[in-house]
Design a protein that fits this description.
By secondary structure, this protein is an alpha+beta fold. It is elongated. Strands 1, 2, 3, 4, 7, 10, 11, 12 and 13 form a 9-stranded mixed beta sheet that branches. Strands 14-16-17-18-15 form a 5-stranded mixed beta sheet. Strands 5-6 form a two-stranded antiparallel ribbon. Helices cover 18% and strands 35% of the residues. It contains 6 helices and 18 strands. Strand 2 (34-36) and strand 3 form a beta hairpin.
Length: 291
């Protein structure tokens, strides 16, 4: 098949790792140049952007890498993985937590917070992934990381032990850890029971396609153009002469323009997207050519 260049937003099924999805797509599409943004645990479902072909070069350039989730939780239990799939470390039934108490606790975990990465995570310590150490029963010292939680609200609660949270947060936030920390604050413990990622890289569930749909219909109709990732940035269009210089990496003086300093998405004389640039003192400097 012709080379794919763009993003395919997959609604990841439960039970699959992000790498499982990549492997499945390589088999379906007969195309190997695939990568993903934002790893999802096997338990989780939802928005998983897959970068195909030249789009892979955009992974570290995205202006919007925030995430949003709906996370199920259960009070009164603690596990080694901080979710329902782990080995139970503690379980209690004698507690009384109301929805009001949960709501009163949530502001403590909203805004700029410090979070300790869980042992069952892909964070590396001394060049070794934490989850590999955890599987051997080894626990090591970890350094708390700053993250930002934009929204944390209680969507539902059964009045006894189970409910659902809505969470909007920065890249690198562990929802399992937030739930565990809330449980600790409430004095009864808590684990994550389900996770749906509803937004990532500016894409939502409505932008997603299932693996079954891709297998049935192919990828062409579901490919999202690369420049969709950068719609938050203003655009600049170059005429043919300037485009040639720009593509060759030459810093381009933008005469007769009043463009403000900052990042721009750049298009050529034919209207085709080229890449991302920085404007400095009316000089356009290549950040990354993507097409």
């Amino acid at each position: 098949m012709a080379e794919l260049n763009g993003i395919i937003c997959v609604n990841k099924p439960s039970g699959f790792t992000s790498f499982d999805v990549i492997a499945k797509l390589r088999g379906i599409l007969k195309f190997r140049k695939l990568g993903h943004a934002g790893t999802l645990d096997p338990l989780a479902t939802g928005v998983l952007p897959i970068f195909a072909g030249k789009a892979a070069k955009a992974c570290n350039l995205m202006p919007n890498d925030d995430k949003a989730y709906e996370a199920g939780f259960r009070l009164g239990i603690e596990t080694d993985t901080l979710d329902i799939t782990g080995t139970v470390k503690k379980s209690i039934s004698d507690f009384n937590v109301s929805a009001e108490l949960i709501n009163d606790t949530l502001p403590e975990f909203t805004g700029n917070i410090s979070q300790l990465p869980p042992m069952y995570s892909a964070v590396s310590v001394g060049g070794v992934k934490l989850y590999k150490l955890a599987r051997k029963g080894i626990e090591v010292e970890r350094v708390p990381r700053p993250v930002r939680v934009y929204e944390l609200s209680l969507l539902s609660y059964d009045g006894s032990a189970e409910g659902v949270l809505r969470i909007s947060c920065s890249k690198g936030t562990y929802v399992r850890t937030i739930i565990s920390d809330i449980g600790e604050k409430l004095g009864c413990g808590a684990v994550m029971t389900s996770l749906i990622r509803t937004k990532a890289c500016g894409f939502t569930l409505s932008d997603c396609v299932t693996l079954e749909e891709l297998e049935k219909n192919g990828a062409e109709k579901y490919i999202i153009p690369i420049d969709t990732l950068f719609t938050e940035l203003p655009e600049i269009r170059l005429h043919a002469e300037l485009e040639k210089k720009y593509r060759n990496g030459v810093r381009t003086e933008m005469r007769n323009t009043k463009s403000e300093s900052g990042r721009y998405r750049v298009y050529g004389a034919d209207g085709m997207f080229i890449g991302i640039a920085a404007m400095v003192n009316n000089e356009l400097r290549v950040e990354k050519n993507l097409c």
